[in-house]
Structure prediction request, 901 residues.
Amino acid sequence: MIWTYIFKRVLWMIPFLFAVSLVAFLLIQAPPGDYLTTYVAKLAETNEALDQAALDNLRQRFGLDQPLYVQYFKWVGNLLTGDFGMSFEWRQPVSDLVWGRMGLTVTLSLATLLFTWAVAFPIGVYSAVRKYSIGDYIATTIGFIGLATPNFLLALILMYVGVVHFGADVGGLFSSEYKNAPWSWGKFFDLCQHLWLPIIVLGTGSTASLIRVMRANLLDELHRPYVETARAKGLSEFWVIMKYPVRVALNPFVSTIGWVLPNLVSGAVVTAIVLSLPTAGPLMLQALLSQDMYLAGAFVLLLSSLTVIGMLISDILLVLLDPRVRYE
Amino acid sequence: MPQILMNTDMNSAAGPLLSVENLNVGFLQRTGVVDVLHGISFALYRGQTTCVVGESGSGKSVTARTILNMVPRPGKINGGRVVFHPDPKGSPIVLTDLDPRGKEIRAIRGGRVGMIFQEPMSSLSPVHTIGNQIIEAIRLHENVSKKRAHAMAVEALRQVEIPEPEKAVDRYAFEFSGGMRQRAMIAMALACKPDVLIADEPTTALDVTTQAEILDLMRGLQKELGMAIMFITHDMGVVAEIADHVVVMEKGHVVENGDVRQIFDAPRHPYTQKLLAAVKRLESPAPGKTSPPASAKPVLKVRDLELHFEKKEGFMGRKTSIVRAVNGVNFELQEGEALGIVGESGSGKTTVGRCIARVYDPKGEIEYNGTNLISANAAQLKQMRRELRMIFQDPFASLNPRMTVKQIIAEPLIVNGLASGADLDTRIAKLLTDVGLSPDMMERYPHAFSGGQRQRIVVARAIALDPKVVIADEPTSALDVSIRTQVLDLLLDLKARLNLSFVFISHDMAVIRYFCDRVAVMHRGKMVEIGQTDQIIDHPQHPYTKALLSSVPISHPSQRGTVQRHRYHPETA
Prediction:
């Protein structure tokens, strides 16, 4: 039954992604001008000039002189064959650029997600069960500070502390000697050494909000009659809470994957720039600024797909977790 | 029943199985400790049922939980003790002295003393199978393998007469009906063959027919297993059905404690007398009931009313099943008449009420004042909604907790642009007086009122627009008996004074007899019988009506065994 459910959901993704591609394309086209306008402006800054004939020539070569719908169908047609087009700015195939960065982005995202859960789950349960205890107040205070601090500021502080007090090498995901080296155990350990900082920086905000979510949900469930039933059975207090209310309170926890996935890619742009992380965020920002149409389009599409996949994963987990969720 | 009487004597001689001695429980509040139980004492005996009765807030549920040392926070036992004496030769265990989280008390909870709760809907975990929860209870107290525990769980389900227990064991609570869930709860509580079963209003949320079945089941299991039952209820009918001893509680005191016959025949305490009188009053039609004159014109005509809920599935929205919630209902409501609609849950009685109020979009014809409400346009519906008002069951849920009484009652008046300023204030004051509340309660919030007072506020809101017809959906079932008659008397008074017509939906035969001129019996979306109230109750024609009436609890313990209970099966009828 669950397989037909997944199959149906995947099938639904097709028309959805098609609609997304259309919206993404229109959004990228929405600002006035195109890549060449930006390009000319940039050249003008350095006192270079491009004559009209050369400009027309370039415009024709990039296909920017054709009507919108022709450009769109060309783009989508190529997408179907796996060709994401060329980046105007980098003069490289978009897919090379994107995939080169996606691997590290996904690694970082997953690590951050696991960190968030590992921290938020026990603290959330604790502050609900021991409501209004000193521990709850401490967790709540730290949680609110975590929510209120901008990530990039936290990044700067941690970098300062790391460099000045611990002499750590911060910034980027690799030390300089490994940056362009092929993968090896040494490079892997180097990555681990660099990963903790961005994980903490990126994770605090969502950890704090997840603690609040977990606490609020669990508080709703803690005094339900079925908890009392479990207690009247003679179950120990720890298992009473873990097996029953926590299990039910997990639902919203699982639902968060849906928004955490895309958020980790797009939401961390400023932090990624501050920490000079070789992830997708800064590249996407650059592509949008210079109206690098195909590169930006690929990113928007990718983000949308990640959202859809994230939703699918959290829905599947929900079905597994809660038999009441109907999936026939 | 001489057999039971003999048992009583034998066991009383052996001493109580569990005794509550001078138990005092306080709740810690900002202002200090407020006692909710004031030194109560009573005892439970092997093989016998002790009913604890009292109205809401009398401390019945706190008592039940304190026995298992599960005092709800911020409660604290501050006096007295609970003594459990399962083995006459062994030494007694003082339950209140045990650590509430310790091993000893946990071995007793569920093992020696089982407990079932009121809400079968929410007392079982929504995300674990029934079997999982029963097996857990078994393995907590008995050292058996998973496989053996599974077999025991199936056996426990069979014992409570759940059909196909092998399959039921792997199903979830939400796949069961209310009655089946309560059976599963009982199976779980009894899985370890406890000495004592504490049942906290186990049948209150169930239909009368289901209630009768559950009571039969508990009685049968008691005979088989010989446990002591502590049965908490507010329903004197249930007490008459099953009690051996009765403990009457009021505001945290035990005011009377004795044999069931003594309590019914010669109640000593005024509170017990009041409780019984309230029940007695409901045994006959209201004294102030005014029937409509024979010349009364029909105000509402319902013809061929139909409402189907369709379940759709898959991409194309294929219809996979149709629930015929209302399936061809016909009736007329006369001016100044109260028409009762009775039936079990799921019979469609509430849906009929909502169809008339046009909450739903039914098929058929509802003629009100010459307009067909089903084809009426928006303006006509707006006018009709002024004259056709609803009262709901739960006075706690149907009042917005953040609005004052004044705002609540004023809302329909303001929405319809009927009053403002000083005029509004006088109208609200008059409405409050009409429903027996004081006008200076206007600025208070609903939480400051008791259930009965809240239902009066709901009534005031309903009559604010001078309606012609009131649809009352179980308006008294969430109220205590003594308040029930008060609210019904208020409605009767308003009905006579304002010439209101009522569609009165209820599952309670006593309430219907007290209030209604005519009654319609619904079963699975159809009206099986309609007629004068006394006619239907005294001489029911349709087999379903007969079955429904046979399930109504008896009013005196001496009638035990005189009613032949049966359930209506349309296939065999």
